[in-house]
Automatic annotation (TrEMBL):
This is TetR/AcrR family transcriptional regulator. Residues 124-143 bind DNA. It comes from Cellulomonas triticagri. Pfam families: TetR_N (PF00440). SUPFAM superfamilies: Homeodomain-like. Keywords: DNA-binding, Transcription, Transcription regulation. InterPro entries: Homeodomain-like_sf (IPR009057), HTH-type_TetR-like_transc_reg (IPR050109), HTH_TetR (IPR001647). Residues 101-161 form the HTH tetR-type domain. One of its GO terms (molecular function) is transcription cis-regulatory region binding.
């Protein structure tokens, strides 16, 4: 066996290998070819026998892809070869995103726990990182400063408060749709929501920021009451679609912004940890409701 034979056989073996990977084509049955006829020229023939190449004929040395079909660049050839180039998406990106989300959530949960334990935001980045079980640099990978962590935690707590107020409002019995009935429903909502705990939490967290003239603390406090008012107004409109929109807004705004006033008064005059702190809050809520209900007409 000479060297020329080895050169001629290597491409044929490669072609046979690719043919084995290609599904067989369905062909119509034909009658048996007469004896002595030339073998089929179909390059996909499963039983095609190799044809010896005459000396000097180098066509058999063309790339296998060019010899599969007579038509250069046909669909079957290009599809067969590009299958090897198909790549599946790597899950590395998804794992990194999930790890990043878990780290951020751990930092927020640690800040929430420290705020509840201490009643204020007087903790360091090192303490926060240790509680979250992350590196110090990981904290700054997610937040620009410790104040940003506190503000993000307060925003999450605010969402919980709004959800609680919505739940209480949605379970309040429906009245007849009059202004007095809507007022009674709002009064029940304010009495039923656990606002003192949330007010203590937000005041302790945002107090140092407000004392440092950080405008973000003021904006977040304003946003808190505005969002509560929006959700309460939406609940009343959902219950009473024919109610006057201006009446609803005036009613809700007077009570919610009154809550903002008594919240500030309660925080500055009452120790939230005192045994009678909740009773003091309930008394302020009753005073607010009575004042808004009766108005400021001359006493008889």
């Amino acid at each position: 066996m000479g060297p020329g034979h080895l050169v001629a056989q290597a491409p044929d073996r490669a072609e046979a290998h690719l043919a084995a990977l290609t599904p067989p084509r369905r062909t119509a049955r034909t009658s048996k070819a007469p004896s002595g006829s030339a073998p089929s020229a179909d390059p996909h023939g499963a039983f095609a026998r190799p044809v010896p190449h005459p000396p000097g004929d180098l066509r058999h040395l063309r790339p296998v892809s060019a010899r599969l079909h007579p038509v250069h660049g046909c669909t079957a050839c290009t599809h067969l070869l590009t299958v090897l180039d198909v790549t599946l998406p790597s899950p590395v990106t998804d794992r990194r995103a999930a790890l990043k989300a878990r780290s951020r959530q751990a930092i927020l949960a640690a800040a929430d726990a420290l705020l509840r334990e201490r009643g204020d935001a007087q903790f360091s980045v090192d303490e926060l990182a240790a509680r979250a079980d992350v590196a110090r640099r990981t904290v700054f990978n997610h937040f620009d400063s410790l104040d940003d962590v506190v503000l993000s935690t307060c925003t999450a707590r605010l969402n919980e408060v709004i959800h609680e107020v919505q739940t209480v409002a949605s379970t309040t019995p429906v009245g007849d749709g009059s202004r007095s009935a809507m007022f009674d429903e709002l009064a029940l909502t304010l009495r039923g929501a656990d606002l003192p705990e949330a007010i203590t939490y937000l005041a302790g967290a945002l107090g140092p920021l407000a004392e440092g003239n950080d405008p973000r603390a003021v904006v977040l406090a304003q946003e808190a009451f505005s969002r509560v008012a929006d959700h309460l107004s939406g609940e009343l409109v959902r219950r009473y679609p024919v109610a006057d929109a201006l009446d609803v807004q005036l009613l809700v705004s007077s009570l919610v912004h009154g809550v903002a006033v008594i919240a500030l008064h309660w925080c500055t005059t009452t120790d939230p940890a005192a045994p009678d702190a909740r009773a003091a809050w309930d008394s302020l809520v009753d005073r607010l409701i009575d004042s808004v209900r009766a108005g400021y007409m001359p006493e008889r």
